[in-house]
Amino acid sequence: MSLEVYIRGTVPIQPETSDDKVEEALRPWLEYIDEDTVANAKSIHPDEPGIRYDTERNVLEICWTGTVGHNFRKVLTQSLEQLNLLSDEAGCIDVTYYYDDGREEADIMFVGPDITTIQMAQKARMSADIGNLLGRQFGDSEIAEVVALVSQIFDRNWQSDNTQTDNAAMIFSEALSKQLH
Predict the structure, then answer these.
(1) What is the pTM of this model?
(2) Domain 3-111 - what CATH class?
(3) Using CA atoms, how far apart are residues 7 and 97, in angstroms rounded to an integer?
């Protein structure tokens, strides 16, 4: 059973990173869609640029839609984990799966040079999402109050739940370790 997936995001890449390195990181994804290069990874929608690595700006930009199977999530995860080694800052990737029966499933994935950077990006994204949602009904002071509370919860969880942070760091370290060996 196939489904359509829409992927959009930007990943800042370390300066002087070659096209070959980016393609190597994205190899699981490229092989899955049967493409040899990032430049050939076109979206099924002609108005979307696909996957582009801008060497002048050191940014990997993704705006790609394709038809995939259920195992694509694993392939995408592998590719994004490999980008961790090349990333200069945290980047956020929005992924939406569209099923034949009309259901949609949204996911947010993060890429970054270390677990702390990724956690800070998660916190910033959550704060922005909450602010946008609350902005429909509340004023700036009420939004700031809720966003401050969410920020406190993130900080408290990071400080008090070392196990969760250690597990996340371990997963991050395992992904990096696999790539180094």
Answers:
(1) 0.80
(2) alpha beta
(3) 9
